[in-house]
Write a structure and sequence with these properties.
single chain; mainly alpha; 86% helix; globular
């Protein structure tokens, strides 16, 4: 019993190391190609539209209700200590430092990351990637780099919108439900919010966007097993990227703040 448990743990550890090593090598290869191969700007714009613009509606809904719930809970808790005027500060700091980049990364991973893994995975199992190589087209240039650059650029952009929308969601609850003074809410926001809170959140978002694009592209690029394999790779890509975002968020927070 103990022996089989140790063997299972060893296999899982080996698989994790192989998977992590494969992702790192794939990422290094992609970044190296980024500096040696000209990229078609039209492909990048298309991916920016797919990853960023089309993700905005779900980011909007998530952000505004996150800000509203945050204000609701913060006001209720702080009222016990007579500190309800600090709601604006808590909402602003929470959105810019943590909730904005993290929730945006998770939402975009679920929507756009899954699509990246499924698209590239389908191309792999239908041998379209092999056809690209036969035609002397670098698949990293054509498939991965545009998605990588789009994720790197659009996640911070969406995070900016998420921060603004979330803070305004908190404003709606604070002034509309709890009748807080609008000027007091915004004064508390600007009194305690620093520029470093904002741009450190954008650094997180850029890392999350790059991670999403690379991990999902990697899982799609090495898909096996036909249609079932595409579904399996898509699920693994979303789960692995989500875990990467949540784990790396701690280390980035410890480093940046």
């Amino acid at each position: 019993m103990i022996k089989s448990g140790i063997e299972r743990l060893g296999r899982l550890t080996s698989l994790f190391i192989l998977e992590a090593g494969g992702i790192v090598l794939f990422s290094l290869k992609t970044i190296r190609q980024l500096f040696t191969i000209p990229v078609d700007i039209r492909l990048i714009i298309h991916q920016m539209l797919s990853i960023g613009v089309r993700s905005f509606p779900v980011v909007f809904i998530t952000s505004i209700f996150t800000g509203m719930v945050l204000a609701l809970q913060t006001y209720t808790g702080f009222k016990r200590f007579g500190a309800e005027t600090m709601v604006g500060s808590v909402v602003a700091l929470s959105m810019t430092r943590e909730l904005g980049p993290v929730l945006t990364g998770l939402i975009v991973t679920g929507r756009a990351g899954a699509a990246i893994a499924a698209e590239i995975g389908t191309m792999r199992v239908t041998e379209q990637i092999d056809a690209l190589e036969t035609l002397a087209t670098n698949p990293l240039k054509y498939l991965v780099i545009p998605r990588f650059l789009a994720g790197l650029l659009m996640l911070p952009s969406l995070t900016v919108l998420s921060d603004i929308i979330g803070i305004n969601g908190g404003f709606i609850v604070s002034t509309g439900i709890y009748k807080m003074s609008a000027s007091l809410y915004w004064r508390k926001v600007w009194d305690y919010l620093e520029l470093s809170d904002f741009y450190n959140g954008l650094i997180k978002a850029a890392f999350f966007g790059a991670s999403m694009a690379l991990i999902c592209s990697y899982k799609g690029f090495y898909t096996e097993g036909g249609a079932e394999g595409v579904g399996r790779a898509t699920t693994q890509a979303v789960v692995l990227t989500s875990m990467t975002i949540l784990v790396s968020d701690y280390f980035l927070s410890a480093w940046l703040f």
